[in-house]
Amino acid sequence: MKKVAALATLLALTSALAASPKDTLVYQSSSDIPTMDPGVTYDTASGGVVENIYETLVTYSGASLSKLEPLLATKWTISNGGKTYTFDLRKGVKFHSGNAFSCADAEYTFERNLVTNSAESGNWFLAESLLGTGANAADDKTITWARIDKAVECNNAGQLIFNLPAVDPAFLAKLAFAGQSVVDSKYAAGLGEWNGKEATWKDWVGKDLTNSKLSQAPSGTGAYKLVRKDSNTLLATAFDGYWGKKPAIKNIVIQKVSELAARQQAFLRGDADLIDGGGRAVDETQVKGKAGVTWVDNLDNTVATAFFMNQNIKNPALLGSGKLDGKGIPATFFKDANVRRAFSYAFDYQKYITDVQKGKGKQRTMLLPEIFGGYDAKVSKYTYDKAKAESFFKRAYGGQLWKNGFVLTANYRQGSEPSQKAMEILKANLEALNPKFRVNIQAKQWSEMLKDSKDGKEAMTIMGWAPDYADPDNFMYTFYSSNGYYNPRLNWKDSQIDKWLEQARSTVNTTERNRLYSLVGKKAFEQAPYILMPAGINYIFMRDNLVGVSASNYNPMISFSATGTFWKELSKK
C-alpha cells in the first residue's frame, strides 16, 4: 500500500503542481532528456539522470576534479608499466531488476561500448584507451572481436582487467564518466539489446542507442530507479535494494518546462526545488535574495562554450539561395577565414558579460578552462571592433560578400536565455554593419539540435563542452582536432594543429604539453574556427530547505549541475 501511495503522490505532482513534499525533489528543466542508456549518454541532461540510476567503477571524491575513489569497484592496481588495470568489484550489489551485479556485467558494459561506439556517444575516448583508436569496427577494419575481447576481461577470481595497448594517464578519470556506468547484462539482453556474444557483435557496430529498449526501461545499481518517463516528465524513486546508504530524498520529479517565467514562478512558490535559470542577469534580478532562496556563488566553471561556424552546411533549408547573391549563403560560407574573423570581431563580448552574466564573466583565450593545465592567458583574444569586422568582411570572397550581402539562419537551444541573448547580440551587430546582412535566429529543441549538428546540418550553433575527465586533451582535441568529437559540427581542419595535438597526447611531459597547447591556441586565434563565448563565474540556487549543496562539495564534474552532487547526497529540512 505504501508503494502505491508514493506512486500516486508522484503522479499527482506531474499533473498539478503542489508545494514540493519533504521526501520529494522537484527539478524543472528547460530541455528534454535525450537518452537513459549509458552506452550513448553524452550530454549533461542525460548524464544528470544516468549517473543517479546507474553507477561507475570509480567516482570523484567530494569536490575534487582529480582525486578518485571506488564506487562499484572496491580497489584497483596498475601493473605492466601502466598498461594493465585490475579492479576488485563490490559484492552484494543488485540491479533494479533484482539481478546480482558481477564482473560479467562490467565486462559486457565496456565491450558493448567498444562495439557500438556510435557518433552520438562518448565511447571514442574509451576506445582510444583500450583499442588505440577512437573509431569503431565499421570505420576501422583493423578492429576485431579478438581485440575488443582482450581489452576487457574477467579473471577466475572475479576481478575486472583492462589491457591497454599504451599508457594513458587519464584512463582512471575516463572510467568516472557517467557514460561508462555499468549495465545489467542479463536484463539488457532480455530486452533485445546485444547479447554480448561474438556471433552477433558485428550487428551492433556503430549502432545508435539513443532510443534503445534499455533507454526506455533502464536497470542500474544506482540509488534511484525509474518509475516512468514521457516527453515532459521523469519520475524516479529510491531503490529499496540499494547497496549503499539509503537516500533521504525518496522521490525525484524532473519536469520539462520550456518557459523560464513558468519555472521561476514554480520555484518562488516552492513548487520546484531546483530549476534551470535564465543566466546570471536574469537570475540575480528575479531569484537572488527572494524569500526561501539559497544562492551559492563564485564556483569554478569547467565548461567551454562557443559559436560553431560550420564550414560545410549539409542542410539546404538553411542556405536560402545557396549562393553569395544576398539571398542566402553557400554551404561553404564559413570556409573563408576572413568571414570567421569578421564574425569574431562582430560579437560584443563585454556586452554579453555585462547584460547576460551581470559582470561576472571573463573572456578566455582558448576553449579550455583556466583551472586545467595547458591554458595560456597570453594568447590573443578577439574584441568587439566594428572597423576590423568591416575590414575582414570586405576581404571575404574577394569583396563579393560585402557587395552582395547574405542571409544566415541560425538555431539556438530552446529555453536557453543566454544562447538567445548571444544570438541577438551577434545578429544586431552584423546587421548594423551592412544593410545587406541579415541573420534569422530561431529556437530549436535540444535533442534535435544535437542530432542535426552532429550531422553537419546546423549553420551556426552555440554549444558548450563539459569535461568528460580532468585532462586538457579532453577540451583541446575535442574542439581543435580534425579527428575530434566536435569536428563534424564544424568541418574545419588545420594540419599543423592536428600535429601539435597528436604530439601533446603522446607525451607525459607536462611542460611540453603546455607548450604545444599554447601553440594551438595561437594558431586557433589566427584561424578563428569558433567565436569564443565569455566564461561565466558559476553559481547555483535552490530552495533554502534543500540540504547537501554548498561550495565545499560542489563538483563540476557531476552532470547534475543544478547541485553539483548526486541525488542521494541531498535531503530536506
UniProtKB/TrEMBL annotation:
CDD domains named among the record's database cross-references: PBP2_NikA_DppA_OppA_like_7
Record's keyword terms, sorted: Signal
Keyword DNA-binding: no
MF (Gene Ontology): peptide transmembrane transporter activity
InterPro entries per UniProt: Peptide/Ni-bd (IPR030678), SBP_5 (IPR039424), SBP_5_CS (IPR023765), SBP_5_dom (IPR000914)
A single GO BP: peptide transport
Pfam families: SBP_bac_5
Superkingdom assignment: Bacteria
Gene3D superfamilies: Dipeptide-binding Protein, Domain 3, Periplasmic binding protein-like II
Gene Ontology CC annotation, any one: periplasmic space
Endpoints of the signal sequence: 1-18
Name of the protein described by the UniProt record: Peptide/nickel transport system substrate-binding protein
Homology family: Belongs to the bacterial solute-binding protein 5 family.
Source organism per UniProt: Deinococcus soli (ex Cha et al. 2016)
Domain Solute-binding protein family: 67-486
